Amino acid sequence: MNCLFFVTVLALTISNIEGAVARFEVEIGNYARFDFGPEMIIIKRTTSVTEEAQYLFAGPNQDGSWTTNGIDKIPSNAHLYWNGTIVFKSITKDDLGSYEMPLEPQRMHLAKTMIDIVLKGQ
Ligand SMILES: *[C@@H]1O[C@H](CO)[C@@H](O)[C@H](O)[C@H]1NC(C)=O
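Predict the joint structure of the above. Result:
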């Protein structure tokens, strides 16, 4: 009885992880905009540029740079607004990767949302 319950929960968790990944297709050099949603004022991303995750904070004095530790700066032309909308004036290959919302509420057994920014047609 207990064992069956465990298997059911595990299966649910796995299917939810798959469901939480979204693809967002972009083209190099193009403008791109993505709405993460209200209150998502911190965005985390993993790209090929650094091994560590990079963070971008909504704030008044953004120069577009992301940071892994609050000190280093990984340049981009992204801007994150207070309403959770991110705007890239011009996508570069360094922007391709996986984006997450550290402030997204965690619901039991549900994976956090991940948005993969990929090249169109790939
Ligand atoms: C968030 O704010 C920006 C800048 O004011 C605006 O361009 C964008 O449309 C807004 N996003 C939403 C989802 O309303």
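The first helix runs from residue 2 to 19.
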